[in-house]
Amino acid sequence: MPDTLQVPAPAVLSLGSGWFGGSAMGKGSRAVWQDLVLFFALAIAVALLLPASAQAAKTKAPENDGPPMRFVVVRSSSPGCEPFCPEWISAEGAITPATPAAFKKFLKKLGDKRLPVIVTSPGGRVEAALELGRMLRARKLDIGVGLTRFVECAPEQKGCKLDPARKGIYQGALYSAGAYCASACSIMFAGGVRRHVGQWAYMGVHQVTSHVTQQKITYRETYKVVKGKRKTVSRKVVRRKTVGSYTTTKMGKAFNATMLAYLKEMGVKQAMYEIGQSTPAAEMRQLTPVEMLGMNLITSLDATDVLVSIESCRIATPAANCILAPGQKLASDSYPKPLVAKEPGMWLAVVRSVGACEPDCPEWISAEGQVDDAAPRRLETLLKELGDIKLPLVISSSEGDPIAAMLMGRVVRANGLDVAVGRTFFAGCKPNGKGCTGWQGDGRPYLGIAGSGGAECGESCLLVLSAGKTRLLGEGVPAGWGPSPALDAPIRNHYLVQMGVGPKVGDAAPGFGKLDEVALALLREGYLTTRSGSVQLLIDSGLCRTSPRPVNCRALQ
Predict the structure, then answer these.
(1) What is the DSSP string of 39-104?
(2) Could you tell me which of 444, 442, 440 has the C-alpha nearest to residue 333?
(3) Which end of the chain has fewer beta carbons closer than 10 Å to its terminal beta carbon, N or C?
(4) Which of 166-180, 401-415, 481-495 has the lowest mean pLDDT?
(5) Burial class (CB in 10 A: 0-12, 13-18, 19+), 126
């Protein structure tokens, strides 16, 4: 099954005989009408060859690239994925001149859906493959080499009729064994945003070979001559005759430049084209996963399965191809909305780690800003909405109302929360940011990471920290009562004793500044902190793989 490339070739012209006639054309002028039959041979280049058809292509131009590529939408049939399942575009068959138009029509019908393309193809027309690659990139689609095993019936199956309620969507499963993307398919493949092959699929490249067919084209041209100058009036083809053909592996500078510019545009290294051009057209060079990664043809060593895994629909940020079944509703995790002060003050929001932890990730309550008089009430409201879910409080605050901080601490103690000083860095907008409504505004948690960097803990913050079940304050964090504490020492020390903190900590705690090991040891001795370590001990993404698993590790439903 040949792959074909159509590029221009020089025309060989020859002149035939004709007849002449004339008539007057205005005052002082003379016009002569002439019909002239011209003959010339027009060479048209075609063909990027696959091994099976190399010999045939030496004698005649390829006429059939095999079954043309067809496109259908497939929904995962994996048990347990409904009603929120991954979907993909199954693209199998040869790339013909009509394939880009068919794909464009298919994508238009698809609407706003952004589904990965799962391809198996022996190759085809290079110009069409270039166009398909650019369409993939413009639509920001991922691509992977794979085959679809259809459930119930397949698109090519005679008599296959889908339930109208399915709206043309098939059901199936992806598998890689036996899948391949050869020759011109590799050009299309380069257009994907994320590109996956895996060790069980095949990616092959080889040399571009042009098949040149020579034709003699006879046409009749009518023209007029005015003041010695000829002007064509019409031209009509009378006859075409094939007079010969040949093959060549010599590609012109223009073609090479086009290919290299395309690969550069797609972020693929020149080495891909060079390896292909160094492989005879009658052979096929299989690219290894390491080679493909080195030339940026694939974006990771992961198999194509990552593009259609049902696990990608169970994380905090489901993949774009996770589609809710018509008429179904996605179960809500009932996350409370962020609580933000109307005036400058402390805001609170539930945050989920964006580390490599899905489907079970640690979550926490982020509390940042000035501890205002309404902060205790906001925390209590949020905890009531969480119900039995106990999440640690990650706080960063340099100032605030100490009385409000003690009330907030009592809410912490009553609910048995762990507390750590840390700052949350959000993936996207912050809860107190303008127009920020959380993850897609659907009631799920905010996403982010937390650490000691950028955090601080003044007098009010330390009062909240002292109420935690576990209390963590990392080295280098600016913290302390400050040079002029807002709260009288007897009142503060009485509260600290109630929280189980040593009676002398309030007087002995350092002034506001970055805490070193000596200062931290002092706080541990007085039980203001319960152990050495930072906020990472409560929210690190690897915690959910330990046993016993922390209570703040949650799986989204």
Answers:
(1) EEEEEEEE-B--GGGHHHHTTS-----SSBPEEEEEEE--TT-TTEEEEEEEEESBB-TTHHHHHH
(2) 444
(3) C
(4) 481-495
(5) buried
**Phi, psi (5° rounding) for residue 258?**
-65, -45
Whether 347-555 and 70-205+265-313 are alike in CATH topology: the answer is yes
Q: How far apart are CA 390 and CA 193, in angstroms?
A: 40
pLDDT at 500 over 60: yes
The CATH number of domain 70-205+265-313 is 3.90.226? yes
DSSP state, 109? H
Model pLDDT for residues 119-133, shown as the tens digit of each residue: 999 998 889 999 999
Which region holds residue 305: left if phi is over 0, alpha if psi is between -120 and 50, else beta?
alpha
* Structure-model confidence comparison of residues 21 and 452, the more confident one: 452
Model pTM? 0.55
Residue 113 identity (one-letter amino acid)? K
> Is residue 153 pLDDT above 80, yes or no?
yes
CA distance 548 to 530: 20
Return the domain boundaries, the chain.
Answer: 7-49+209-253, 70-205+265-313, 347-555
Render 382-434 in DSSP notation, one character per residue: HHHHHTT----EEEEBS-B-HHHHHHHHHHHHHTT--EEE-EEEESS--TTST
Are 389 and 416 in contact, with CB atoms under 8 Å apart? no
**Check: CATH 3.40.50.1580 for 347-555?**
no
Q: Strand 202-205 relative to strand 180-182: parallel, antiparallel, unpaired?
A: parallel
Work out whether strand 393-396 and strand 419-421 pair parallel, antiparallel, or are unpaired: parallel
DSSP β-bridge partners for residue 366: 349, 394
Q: What is the pLDDT of residues 161-170, one digit of tens each?
A: 887 877 889 9
Please write the tens of the pLDDT for every residue from 21-48.
233 333 333 333 333 332 222 232 323 3
